[in-house]
TrEMBL record:
UniProt-annotated stretches for the region Disordered: 478-501
InterPro entries assigned: Acyl-CoA_Oxase/DH_mid-dom_sf (IPR046373), Acyl-CoA_oxidase (IPR012258), AcylCoA_DH/oxidase_NM_dom_sf (IPR009100)
One BP term from GO: lipid homeostasis
Superkingdom field: Eukaryota
GO terms for cellular component: peroxisome
Listed name of the protein: Acyl-coenzyme A oxidase
UniProt biased composition (Polar residues): 488-501
Species: Bathycoccus prasinos
């Protein structure tokens, strides 16, 4: 089963008729999501699509993104937070009991949020988690605590309406820090929607766009949730003796939680491209009809040379990136169906996909806006919701953080093996190596490693750029639907030169 036309018609109908205008209240927008969740037969989406039918899962994101120039980012984020970050994490990390909970909650139209980001962590969310969940042996509950102001969860989408949350917190067992784990918790009472004891939700405040989406900060002060809330595919607290037990091999909890970021990156990459394509389409319609004075044989605005060139350039560039995104999406879909982890090569390709799609969409949309005169200011034009792309930039892995990661991996591979994957990368790595060497010498060896790395920041981003160029160039993504296995289209890499994102 993939995506039949019957399903497409059902979901498109929802997108056209049921997604409220962006000027709607966040409660109204949340109600629309709730209807979608509780009516899988009418609207055709189910929480388990991410595993059972990833093609449908991705296409639903894309169909919603098509309306984003008109509707802004609010409902799109709401949708992806529930179906990817929240339900997707339960699918990836939970067990049978959690799936049953999700099924029952969905029948009631209950909404989930994903509480990862903390104030101090910012874009490094996931790498820095300070919220704690301490196991209380006597009551067999986890007790959640916000340890400092910086540990408050912030920007949590639909936090003001969610019935459930996947909370990422450091598990503390008998005084020992077991690192970040994910917990599925009911945060509002069934029926009354009253917030559970020990949790405070607050509003992040008004945004430039997307105010049909509520964003919350969350503080935990002794919030308690039963033993079963731990998403326990890879680690559990044993019922018999209350001991912590790893399951299914030595899987790092945080990289398991990070799985959802891969699906999110593909969905965001495609959404950014779709937004940009739609803006170009609407604008072209306007400029084809708009006549300009003092012109040659063709007087339409579309034929002003700089705009004509931009249309040609954008068509080619958007198509190239889109092909690469589609290639990665197909590869990832195969992995999702068997509930596995993408190979390191695929993880790298997905990071490249996210960076290139979002940055290309931002650049082209911004340039287009500069070339169409007063139309850029009109309410009917699509530029008013360009901050949709701003959300894409930092969602599911900020472009800068992903670029830093690509560059760091390549540089450490270069130091170990004195080689890189392309001449350009080798030359930039060598330049970084020399600059860091000089930085150390200038300080008699007393230096901070991050400061030294930051001192060559331009080369760092140039290195990331070179990696993106190479990854897109070297992968055979033209003929990718040939039934080969997930990694077979990737150029064979030297494993020590790449590491997990
Ligand atoms: C509308 C919206 C919805 C969201 N929904 C959710 C959600 O549902 N759940 C959730 O957990 N989170 C959510 N987030 C959080 C989001 O994913 C980001 O993690 C967060 O907003 C970024 O934090 P910040 O603004 O403090 O960025 P900062 O950490 O202040 O970073 C600002 C900029 O500085 C740069 N930067 C920072 N650190 C580095 C570094 N080490 N190296 C290089 N550059 C760096 C980057 O360019 C970055 O864009 C949401 C955010 C928004 C705005």
């Amino acid at each position: 089963m993939t995506t039949d036309s019957n399903w497409r018609a059902k979901f498109s109908n929802f997108v056209r008729n049921d997604v409220p205008e962006s000027s709607s209240s966040y409660e109204r927008s949340a109600n629309a999501l709730s209807r979608l969740i509780s009516n899988p037969h009418t609207f055709g989406v189910h929480w388990n699509d991410i595993q059972n039918n990833p093609e449908k899962f991705f296409l639903a994101h894309e169909l919603l993104a098509k309306r984003s120039p008109e509707l802004g980012p609010g409902f799109w984020i709401r949708f992806t937070v529930h179906f990817n970050l929240f339900a997707g994490t339960v699918v990836a990390l939970g067990s049978k009991e959690h799936f049953e909970t999700l099924e029952e909650a969905s029948k009631r139209g209950e909404i989930g949020c994903f509480a990862l980001t903390e104030k101090y962590a910012g874009v490094n969310s996931g790498l820095v988690v300070e919220t704690t969940a301490e196991y209380d042996e006597k009551t067999r509950e986890f007790v959640f605590q916000t340890s400092s102001d910086g540990a408050k969860k912030n920007w949590i989408s639909q936090g003001l309406v969610a019935d459930w949350a996947v909370i990422v917190a450091r598990l503390n067992m008998y005084g020992k820090d077991m690192g970040p784990h994910a917990f599925l918790c009911r945060v509002r009472e069934e029926g009354t929607k009253e917030v559970k004891r020990g949790i405070v939700f607050g509003d992040m405040g008004r945004k430039t766009i997307g105010n049909d989406l509520d964003n919350a900060w969350i503080q935990f002060d002794g919030f308690r949730c039963g033993r079963g809330c731990l998403l326990n595919r890879y680690a559990d607290v044993r019922e018999s003796d209350g001991a912590y037990a790893r399951k299914g091999g030595d899987v790092n909890q945080m990289s398991a939680i990070g799985q959802r970021l891969f699906t999110g990156r593909i969905a965001v990459a495609k959404a950014a491209l779709t937004f940009c394509e739609e803006v170009f389409k609407h604008t072209k319609k306007y400029s084809d009809a708009k006549l300009c004075a003092m012109r040659g044989s063709n007087k339409t605005l579309s034929h002003v040379p700089q705009l004509k060139a931009l249309y040609e350039e954008s068509e080619k560039r958007l198509k190239d990136v889109d092909r690469f995104v589609t290639f990665c999406k197909k590869r990832l879909s195969r992995v999702l169906k068997v509930r596995e982890t993408p190979s390191v090569e695929l993880q790298t390709a997905i990071a490249v996909c996210k960076i290139r799609a979002v940055e290309t969409a931002i650049e082209l949309t911004f340039r287009l806006k500069q070339e169409v005169g007063s139309y850029a200011l009109m309410d009917e034009a699509s530029f008013k919701n360009s901050d949709f792309l701003q959300c894409c930039k930092f969602a599911e892995g900020d472009s800068r953080i992903l670029s830093q990661k690509l560059a760091r991996d390549a540089f450490s591979g270069f130091l170990k093996q004195n080689s890189a994957r392309s001449i350009r990368e080798a030359s930039i790595c060598e330049s970084i190596r020399r600059q860091i060497q000089k930085y150390k010498e200038d300080r008699d060896g007393k230096y901070n490693k991050i400061d030294a790395w930051d001192s060559c920041w331009e080369d760092v981003y140039a290195l990331a750029d070179a990696i993106c160029d190479r990854v897109m160039r070297e992968n055979d993504f033209e003929g990718d639907d040939n039934g080969k296995d997930e990694s077979s289209n990737f150029t064979k890499s030297t494993p020590s030169l790449v590491s997990r994102l």
